[in-house]
Amino acid sequence: MRRLLDAIIAAAMAAGVIVAFIGSSTLRWSPPPLPPRSVALSGAQLAAGARGAAGTGTARGSAYLLRPMARSVPASLYIPRIQARAKIISLGLTPGGAAAVPPLASPFLTSWYDRGPTPGQPGTAVILGHVDSAKVGPAIFYNLGNLRPGDLIYVTLKDRQTAVFRVYSAALYLKADFPIRTVYSYTSWPTLRLITCGGQFDYATGHYLGNTVVFAEYIGPQAAAIGP
Amino acid sequence: MAAFAGATPAALASAPGVDDSRSALIDNPNVSVTPNPSAPGTATTFVVSCNALTAGGNATAATLSGATLGLPAQLPMQPGTQPNQFVLTVNLPQSIGPGSFSPDINCNNGVSQTVNIDVNAVPGQAPETGDGSTLTATDGRLTVAGLGLLGVAAVMGGLVLRRRRPGRHL
After folding, report:
1. How far apart, in whole angstroms, are the C-alpha atoms of residue B4 and residue B43?
2. Distances from the Cα of B23 to the Cαs of B15, B52, B76, in angstroms?
């Protein structure tokens, strides 16, 4: 009887140690997905794509009748592939010179870089969102790395128009080597960039070492507005 | 100093297809800038018409005063597709600050035009978009469960030891 009790106690203590160890070393969530190299275009290809879109519009289906949209601040976005619906706020630059992002306390909010064009206007419209936040774990752009060329992004503007964008590339860049020009430079055709964090995490600084960037091109307006 | 791109035929060929409605906002009809607003490091095309009722004859050359943009003071422009038209594409310097700029273009027939160009700020570094919680947050439920098991075992062990002690003395 005592032997049995001793065995139970020993087993319980061992189990406790093991479970506590597992718990303190097991991630509560899986890491965010990252875009594979196969869908990332080079900087030259991205530039060529933007120039091609600005040309006659051949090989672009009905796009040759398409015109850029009127300037209107974006209000919300919808990305069917990753089931992301979010409101968009307008933000500028941080004191450090990076594009500002919503507070971590609002992990399902996205921000539009308000020093650039609005979505649907010529140039690169930039929308940023968090990949994760201690408050909730996976945040609004957690699955951004799962977007693939061809996926659609709907951005509804304040004037109730919805601009539809089609993904043409997705890539992971080191922050230390972030291709500012590739991501932010003017494109004569309206394009969109969705940006979040990704890659390895620097425990010392508490920051991700990389950014996931999704490149998309404007393919037309949608009649009915899609809100979050 | 920024790279001086010059007006390449390819760049010019695509310019008319650009439908940048903001270019139409420029108040001076004799000059156009594409894109406008532009941004640091962006290839920017200036087109000027040197036509003027008072000027004598057609211009054969025109120069853009690049100093206010952080470019060389005198940038020769290339002849455009029409008489009196001159074109130049330059890469704005990475160092140019955001704001409005008004460089002059001087034609050699005496016409002088002022260009109005807005320059947007471009983020200079990568954004911080996450706190790594999905890479660092450990499973608290398992930890709590394990600590609970440890506690239960400790209590049971304590009880057993207490019961055993009197037995040894007897």
Report:
1. 9
2. 12, 21, 22
Does one domain contain both B30 and B96? yes
Q: Is the dihedral of CA B113, B114, B116, B119 positive or negative?
A: positive
| Domain at B101, CATH number | 2.60.40
Range of the domain at B150: 138-169
How far is Cα A132 from Cα A212, in angstroms, rounded to an integer?
13
Indicate whether B144 and B61 sit together in one domain: no
Across-strand partners of B33?
B46
- Structure tokens that stand for B84 in this block: 């009196």
Question: Tell me, what's the ipTM?
Answer: 0.75
Helix crossing, B140-169 with A2-25: angle to 10°? 160
Q: Which of A154, A167, A153, A169 has its CA nearest to residue A35?
A: A169
Residue A49: is its pLDDT beyond 70? no
Q: How far, in Å, CA of A129 to CA of A139, rounded?
A: 8
**B74 and B154 share one domain:** no
- Chain centroid to Cα B55, Å, comes to 39
pTM: 0.76
Cis peptide preceding B16, ω within 30 of 0: no
As for how many domains chain B has, the answer is 2
Answer yes or no: is B1 within a domain.
no
* Residue A71 confidence (pLDDT): 94
Enter the tokens of residue B40: 């640091």
Q: Which of residues 33-72 of B touch A (CB under 8 A)?
A: 34-35, 38-39, 41-43
One domain for residues B110 and B161 = no
Chosen from B133, B141, B159, B164 to mutate, greatest number of chain A CBs within 10 A:
B133
Which of the four pLDDT bands, split at 50, 70 and 90, describes residue B167?
low
Domains of chain A (ranges, CATH numbers)? 32-222 (2.40.260.10)
Residue in B with minimal Cα distance to A175: B126
